[in-house]
Write a structure and sequence with these properties.
This protein is an alpha/beta fold. It folds into two domains: 11-249, P-loop containing nucleotide triphosphate hydrolases (Rossmann fold); 261-377, 2-Layer Sandwich (Hypothetical Protein Yjia, Chain: A,domain 2), CATH 3.30.1220.10. Helices cover 27% and strands 26% of the residues. It is built from ten helices and 13 strands. Strands 1-4-3-5-2-6-7-8 form an eight-stranded parallel sheet, with helices on both faces. Strands 9-13-10-11-12 form a five-stranded antiparallel sheet, with helices on both faces. Bound molecules: guanosine-5'-triphosphate. Residues 48, 50-56, 139, 203-204, 206-207, 241-243 line the site of guanosine-5'-triphosphate (GTP). The site of guanosine-5'-triphosphate (GTP) has 16 residues, from helix 1.
């Protein structure tokens, strides 16, 4: 499509796909392979419960003076699409909304993967290079399938890469949403969305006031932050009014992959003291395991596959991040996993003075820290 400043680009509706071609294999994503030498375009997934402020955030990003060319993909239920579009201001202030690409058929499950890949393909094949893509998901979505589409592509030298998952939460309603389901075996999306987030925007702080009436400074906000960190200790939390946040903190975070190792190490350092629980914990929680002995990489992979794929011990692991001390290698390896997809890569040489160790943070439900610890120790090579 030729760009024309006078006429803002129209929406491109992705056709609904029928059931016959619904289960598209991930190798479809090979269509998204990048051109040699060009760095992939970052995709920020924006998720959050109904009404938390996702569109407000997208609007804010589009209108901020950053000079980036940003495209938006919406994933909303059919009837809502018109409303969504009308609510988003098409880039008055600096951002150019190049194209709207809507995923018309509901939340991002396997049927939508195909449309998503097509939508991304359409965007990255444009003549004018994009700087970033925002993918706003429906308030009901579980972000994990999205991560799997975008992350796999990274391994395929894709033209796009998952930059980060941002979850917007409503400071006024979050506690209610979490409390409602805390003791149940099934968890609402609110938990999952926080569990998968790299950044949580704690929005609508104006609706939480201290007793003296000063908005946005209440102890209740500290409590909410604790609550969020109990679920996902690795998430960066940013408080906001109408999602007005420093864009440097949310775009280009490179939360996946080994490139951003220093950030990962900082996170792991900060959270090495996450308390371990000796009993089975049914809620969504973060645990950290620290073990120094080097691991056998083959054993470690099959341990991880047992946990992520076979769901051994009924543990529901949503997210893992860590550094590994691999036997026979002078390289520090990083581990990243989102649901069943994982990646272990050598990142850099261990430094001489550095303590070589395995430090893994797990976010999930039903985690049993004893089983996790024992089974990890079984992968170690005694030196
Ligand atoms: N008081 C207050 N209202 C806000 C704030 N941020 C957003 N809102 C309002 O909250 C409502 C919902 O915001 P949206 O951005 O549409 O939320 P959403 O997550 O996109 O909503 P869905 O698409 O329905 O899931 C709108 O009326 C916003 O104006 C805030 O910080 N404070």
């Amino acid at each position: 499509m030729e760009e024309d400043d006078e006429n803002p680009p129209l929406a491109v509706r992705i056709e609904e796909i029928n059931e016959d071609n619904a289960s598209v294999s991930l190798s479809q994503s090979e269509d998204l392979r990048g051109t040699a030498g060009e760095s992939p375009v970052g995709v920020t997934v924006i998720t959050g419960y109904l009404g938390a402020g996702k569109s407000t955030l997208v609007n804010y990003i589009l209108n901020a003076q950053h000079g980036k060319r940003i495209a938006v993909i919406l994933n909303e239920f059919g009837e809502e699409i018109g409303v969504e579009r009308a609510m988003i201001n098409e880039g008055d202030g600096g951002a150019l909304v190049e194209e709207w690409v809507e995923l018309a058929n509901g939340c991002v499950c396997c049927t939508v993967k195909h449309s998503l890949v097509q939508a991304l393909e359409q965007l990255v094949q444009r003549k004018e290079r994009l700087d970033h893509i925002l993918l706003e998901t429906t308030g009901l979505a579980d972000p994990a399938p999205l991560a799997s589409v975008l992350w796999l592509d990274d391994q395929l030298e894709s033209a796009v890469r998952l930059d980060s998952i941002i979850t917007v939460v409503d400071a006024k309603n979050l506690k209610l949403q979490l409390d409602e389901y805390r003791d149940y075996a099934s968890f609402p999306e609110a938990f999952l969305q926080i569990a998968f987030a790299d950044v949580v925007i704690l929005n609508k702080i104006d609706l939480i006031s201290r007793e003296d009436g000063v908005p946005g400074t209440s102890d209740a906000l500290d409590d909410l932050e604790k609550e969020i960190h109990n679920i996902n200790a690795l998430a960066t939390i940013i408080r906001s009014l109408r999602c007005q946040v420093d864009l440097c903190k949310i775009l280009d975070r490179q939360a996946y992959g080994a490139k951003n190792l220093s950030h990962l190490e900082e996170l792991l350092e900060e959270h090495k003291s996450i308390p371990s629980r000796s009993h089975h914990d049914y809620s969504v929680r973060t645990f950290c395991i620290n073990e120094q002995q080097p691991v056998d990489l083959t054993k470690l992979r099959s341990w991880l596959e047992d946990l992520l794929w076979e769901k051994k011990s009924n543990m529901d692991l949503y997210r893992c991040k860590g550094v590994l001390n691999v036997h026979g290698s002078d390289q520090l390896h990083t581990l990243q996993a989102v649901r069943e997809i994982y990646e272990i890569v050598p990142a850099r040489k261990w430094q001489q003075k550095e303590k070589q160790t395995n430090r893994i943070v797990f976010i999930g439900r039903n985690l049993d820290v004893d089983i996790l610890g024992d089974s990890l120790r079984a992968c170690m090579v005694l030196t």
